[in-house]
């Protein structure tokens, strides 16, 4: 009788274990499947009207994907594909304009991906050192580059002003380092003089051999890793968010001060979208200025213009 009881307990535990395992793995499979479901429809990043397709055709840098440094950064990124997807998705309002500006200046298209590292395409991002905006400009740097920062307005948060300033700086760095973009990108992170000094001390202009700050040693490989993934997402099992190769916003002149809330209500513009496009107006309204402008979604521009008498 004891044997039968023990056998019954064994069978019961075995069945219970199988049930738990089925439930566990069933749930786990469901969690894993959340990733492809999250992306929804095919991203279509190979389509001719995709910004990613256009950008990758203009990449100029050797991503050095065989190097240990770049490989390490790639592994970090593809380990969390949903986070990477969200970062690239955050670029949707800005990436067309940024790429357009790199193209106009003859700069490597990879530079349009710098905000992935700097701010994750969050114009409101602010570091503990005070660097602000998509390009993480410090107040002094912004002043030197002609970006205004004053009460009620922070041009470092303005996608047009900050992008033009950052790319003008990159253009200068590229010329200073004779087209060595690894050094130019490193200098954007830690400073021109620091890179120049490292080159002099090391006796080489190879970024990979320079005694630079730890952050900078990771900075360049991280950008190259992002570029490598954008260039060949299928190779790394990554989906890119769909982003059409066309303007997202239009700049509209503002004749007199107006609150963003009012524009959103009367023109039927989503207030979150309007705030995301105009985070430079820190008080939520345009200042009294002849040069004041608003960035609005392209399809809403005619309505906003009519409302503002632009």
From TrEMBL:
GO cellular component, one term: membrane
Pfam families on file: SLT
InterPro entries tied to this protein: Lysozyme-like_dom_sf, Transglyc_AS, Transglycosylase_SLT_dom_1
Single GO term (MF): peptidoglycan lytic transglycosylase activity
Gene Ontology BP terms: peptidoglycan metabolic process
Family, as annotated: Belongs to the transglycosylase Slt family.
Classification via PANTHER family: MEMBRANE-BOUND LYTIC MUREIN TRANSGLYCOSYLASE C, SOLUBLE LYTIC MUREIN TRANSGLYCOSYLASE-RELATED
Listed name of the protein: Membrane-bound lytic murein transglycosylase D
Protein species of origin: Aquicella siphonis
Gene: mltD_3
